[in-house]
Amino acid sequence: MNKHIESYLKEFITMDKPQYAVMLKGDWGSGKTYFIKNFIENDKNNKYVYVSLFGLKSTEAIDEAIFDELHPVLSSAPVKVLNTVFKSALKLGLRVDVDSENANLNSVNANINLDSVLDYFDKKNKDKNVIFIFDDLERTLLDYTEVLGYINSMVETSGLTVIVIANEDKITNDVFNDFKEKTINKTYKLVSENSEVFLEIVNKHNVLTNHVEGIRNIFDKSGNNNYRVLIQIIDNYKYFSKSILRKFKKNSDFMENLVHQYFIYSFTYKIAGNLDNISDILKSFNNKYQLFNSKTWKDIIENNIINQDELTKTIQELYFFKKEVEKPSWRELWDYNHLNKDAFYKNLKSMQTDFLNFKYNNPLILLHVVSLLITFSKAGIKTVISVEKIRDTTCEYIRSHTNKEWNKKNRGDSFFNSTGLGYTNDDDADFKNILRLINIKIDDIVAEYEVYAEKEDRANSVSMIETGDFLGLIDILDKKYSTVAYLHNLDADMIFQKIMEDDSRIFGFSMVINHRYPSNHTMDNRPISFYRLEELSFLQALSTHIRTYLEKDDRDDFIALKLKILIELLEKNIKYLEEIKKQYINQDI
Predict the structure, then answer these.
(1) In the β-sheet with 184-189, what is the strand arrangement from edge to edge?
(2) Region at 26 (left for phi over 0; alpha for psi -120 to 50; beta for the rest)
(3) Within this chain, do residues 170 and 183 fall inside the same structural domain, yes or no?
(4) Is 83 exposed, middle or buried (0-12, 13-18, 19+ CB in 10 A)?
(5) Rounded alpha-carbon distances, angstroms, from residue 559 to 503, 504, 550, 569
(6) Separation of CA 434 from chain center
(7) Domain limits at 552?
(8) 1-10, 86-95, 385-394 — most confident range
(9) In contact, 232 and 206? CB cutoff 8 Å
């Protein structure tokens, strides 16, 4: 599609001192840079000096960029200790003067003695034509008078061969229009060669070899045909994929869905700037799987947070990695479009019979079954029970057939469940109502368990203080109550009595307090101690007990010495928590 441009450039670069430049234009991400770099790579007969003007603030910065291109070894970091020597040498061949008082194209002089430069730095390329390419003109931070005058002088005064690359639509400047009229002979617009360029970009990465077609469909459907964005997302995915264990990567179905969802969410984020409507995004791409919940995807794509341990736990629970000799009937029906008539009715009968006989102990699997039955019932399949019967049977599950699998981990929502498989009709009102009833029951069970567990933990905490197992107490706090307040559930008066029964416990409990409120640990851009603010009341009450003891005339001086260390820690952390409360609670209000 751009062969005519390639053909002309091959002719242009052979011209002797053409006295004009050529311009390649196109939208951002349309493949301009890719096209020219591919052109350079395929030409072994000439020397190219490629300079991106993106962010350059001075003509001296252009000098240095040209110098780096002419001899990258001499411009490398170890050699740049001789910076002064090289800059002096560079001036043998390059000098740019700007007359600021009369700023126009003719006032900028780039007196470039190319023979001098090549002789000094690049003898092996001295006999080759040298072509200067200036990319990202619209992104320079230089005044257009300076940068265009610089290029104009290279063309007119020094007779150099120059190609300029820009998104012309982003430049509204009279100096540019003057420059183009005076210096540019031909302007070519790059037409995006989607198929060819896309394949060359993606095929460079082995981790995506089996997913080219899927990524191409996502790329096309996203509406963001920007190759720079594509390259960025590929690089981000390569980094992300290092967090996925090798054993998971062996499952081709899982990897296909992982790659597709990563690219779907990434392109969406690049376009919208957020993933606020994450529940609708996969549906727009006809993807039925939901591998991770919305928070996890937002952390990965928006916040660049990758928790490998949590990812591993989530992935190994997905249906892809459940070892089953034969797919259960509900799983066959989940993908019912691939079944023939006999297989469909056979699996439907089996699933419905198991449902009516209360065989589905896991609430997430039960929800899949309910979703499928509602879908088939409303589709008019005569052998399926009514929606009312489905709802009544589910209510009976809720009343009489809950077990240990009815827990927080198996609490579903209409977007995500830990099987990784989307519900067949998650927008259906009857299904949503049943989902709500099941989640209410799970919440009741979890709340009841948490009350019991908390009571048990309180008893264990007191026992650990009595036995001096303060490392065990720290372990409970870290593992179960890292992001939840806990110490406020303890009786400060009783804890004070326990550490005073055996004063050797004072130091151990001081260690617990010191560990509990780190200043260098954050979650969701807030100090981790923000989530423990309720513990302020416990710290204040315990501090009061200690302060009262220290004021007694009959206090033991040695015990007082150790209590002073503890109260210093308490008061330091009370102050820290109050500062957090003031900053973040007020912010939320």
Answers:
(1) 46-52, 129-135, 161-166, 21-25, 184-189
(2) left
(3) yes
(4) exposed
(5) 7, 9, 9, 16
(6) 34
(7) 468-588
(8) 385-394
(9) no
Q: Express each pLDDT in 427-452 by its tens digit.
A: 899 999 999 999 898 888 878 877 77
The reported pLDDT for the residue numbered 231 is 86
Give the C-alpha separation, 37 to 31, whole Å: 10
pLDDT at residue 182 greater than cutoff 90: no
User: Looking at the structure, do residues 405 and 488 belong to the same domain, yes or no?
Assistant: no
Are 519 and 505 members of one domain? Answer: yes
Q: CA neighbours within 13 Å on the CB side: how many for 174?
A: 1
What's the Cα-to-Cα distance from 465 to each of 89, 462, 561, rounded to whole Å?
Answer: 74, 5, 20
CA torsion, ordered 13, 14, 16, 20, to nearest 10 deg? -30
Which of 321, 353, 378 is the C-terminal boundary of a domain?
Answer: 321
| Neighbour tally for 29: CB within 10 Å | 19
pLDDT at residue 167 greater than cutoff 50? yes
| pLDDT given for residue 230 in this prediction | 86
At a CB cut-off of 8 Å and minimum separation 6, what does 13 contact? 43, 46, 129, 131, 161
Out of 413, 447, 481, a domain closes at 447
Q: Is residue 526 helix, strand or coil?
A: strand
Percent of the chain exceeding pLDDT 90 equals: 40
Residue 137 to residue 168: CA distance in whole angstroms:
9
Tell me which residue of 440, 442, 383 sits closest to 410, measured CA to CA. Answer: 442
Residue type at 474?
A: I
**Cα three-residue angle 357-360-365, rounded to 5 degrees:** 145
Q: How much is the average pLDDT of 485-502?
A: 94
- Spell out the residues 6+ positions from residue 349 whose beta carbon is closer than 8 angstroms to its own: 383
Residue 437 contacts by C-beta under 8 Å, 6 or more apart in sequence? 394, 395, 398
Of 176-180, 268-272, 280-284, 571-575, the poorest mean pLDDT is in: 280-284
Q: Is residue 242 part of a domain?
A: yes
Q: Which candidate, 63, 65, 31, places its Cα nearest to that of 50?
A: 65
| DSSP letter string, 451-508 | HHHHHHHHHHHHHHHHHT-HHHHHHHHHHHSSSS--GGGS-HHHHHHHHHHSTTHHHH
Measured between alpha carbons, how far is 117 from 359 in angstroms, rounded to an integer? 83
Asked which of 172-181, 260-269, 446-455 is least confident by mean pLDDT, the reply is 446-455
> Please, what is the end-to-end C-alpha distance for the chain in angstroms?
58
